[in-house]
Each structure stands twice: as structure tokens, then as C-alpha cells.
Amino acid sequence: MKKRILIKLSGEALSGKNRIGIDPKTVKKIAREIKSAYDLGICEIAIVVGGGNIFRGKLADEMGIERASGDYMGMLATIINALALQNSLEALGVDTRVLSSLNIPEVAEPYIRRKALSHLEKNRIVIFGGGTGNPFFTTDTTAALRAAEMDASIIYMAKNGIDGVYDKDPKGNADAVRFDQLTHTEVLKKELHVIDSTAAALCNDNNIDICVFDMNVEGNIRRAVLGENIGTIIKK
Predict the structure, then answer these.
(1) Which residues, in sequence order, are CB contacts of 205 under 8 Å at separation 6+?
(2) What tens digit of pLDDT does each residue of 177-195 get?
């Protein structure tokens, strides 16, 4: 029986070196990496993608936009990213479906849990857009929530240039130490900020493991799915 997994992609990962917007070459590369894992034939794959490459909370603050409205704008950004990823995957011959928690029937199916499960059972990659459909929740929390709803055993947290969880920011601290394994409780107590507290609590309560790894290394999504030690594992 195939295991069911969820891959969490940051919106910034789709922007490549531009750090903003969608870079076509980068999205195609990510699609190839996901297909490589899909072709193993050992798992059903769901994906949650962020929207930070298009709209971020910091920008909303600078524009004087209230938090709820800014969050809805971010949710719309995740749907744009989901559609971009879907098209790149389908260009490679992979059957996919985008399910949105916001009702936009012209571009995506509405999120219905049983429909999502049916797509996964038919070996389609399911991409979740629109966050949770509610403001004040991050796409990390969306990933944890959808993983619980889909009965996924693990979330593969694909980071943009960071190969695991460190005791401090590795980009600004040469003495940062990487953890090989942590518990959800340790992530919360140490305030490591690799995943938000709501998501960590959800994963802990539902016994969902998290694998944090660098998606910029070619073949890493496939290696992660195969269980190779390429990052940090967070378990209960």
C-alpha cells in the first residue's frame, strides 16, 4: 500500500533568484523534482504552496492594509502559485488537481475532503490553494491541517536554501548547529521558528512527522521520499 505524503513549498521557492513573482525555469525545475518522486510509485502526493513570492504580510503593513484583508490577498497568491505548479506538472504528463479553500470554480475545484482523497487514490497529485480559507492562519498551518485531513504520515518541508533545522539562523551565524532529529515539543520550547506553533501543535496531536530539507539540491525531494538522511526529522 502506498504511503500518503504532503510536500510544503514556500512561495519564495517559485521565484528563483528574482525573490519575487514566478520564475518559469524554477517552477519547471521544481515540477521535475516532484515528478521524480512521483515516478517512484511508492506514495500518493499532496502539495501545499505558499504565496510569499507574490504578497507578504510585511507589504500589507506598509500599505496600511488590515490583517484579515492582507491574509485573503495572500490566499489568492497561493492559488496563482498552485495553478503555475499544476501547469508545469501536467506539461510533464502528471495528472493533477488544484483544490481551493476559496470558492473560485472557474479556476479550481472547491476543497472537499472526500474529493481530495478520491483524487489521491486515483494517483493524481493534489495541490491545495487558498490556505485554510480563513485569515490569521499561515500556510504552515494549512499544511498541517491538510496532512491531518488526508491522513498523511509525514510533511516534507522543502526549504529554499536551508538544509534542516538549526539552533540559530545559519545564514547569519557561522557557528549555527544543525539538529538531526527533534520532537514537536522541542521545536516549540526552543522557539526554533522552522514551523509556526499552531502547525507544530497540530502535527504533534495527530502524530505527523516533519522532514525539513533543502529543495535546491537536485534530487532531494526524491531522496527525502526514499527516507535518506538529508535534513532534520521532527517527530512526536
Answers:
(1) none
(2) 999 999 999 999 988 888 8
Question: How far is residue 200's CA from residue 143's CA, in Å, rounded to a whole number?
Answer: 10
Please report, for residues 5, 34, 204, the alpha-carbon distance to residue 226 in angstroms, rounded to integers and kept in the order given: 12, 13, 23
Look up residue 115 and give its amino acid.
Answer: K
Task: Please state whether beta strands 181-183 and 178-179 pair in parallel, antiparallel, or not at all (unpaired).
Answer: unpaired
d(CA 78, CA 81): 5
Q: In 214-235, which positions are buried (b, 16+ CB within 10 angstroms) versus exposed (e)?
A: bbbeeebbbbbbeeeebbbbbe
Domains and CATH numbers, the chain: 3-235 (3.40.1160.10)
Q: What's the gap between Cα 79 and its chain centre?
A: 13
Q: What is the pLDDT of residue 110?
A: 97
What pLDDT, in 10s, does the model give residues 38-85?
999 999 999 999 999 998 777 788 889 999 999 999 999 999 999 999
Strand order from edge to edge, sheet including 96-100: 109-110, 96-100, 125-129, 43-49, 3-9, 154-159, 209-214, 232-235, 181-183
The model's pTM:
0.94
Cell of 55: 504578497
CA-atom Rg of the chain in angstroms:
17
Beta strand 178-179 with 165-166: parallel, antiparallel or unpaired? antiparallel
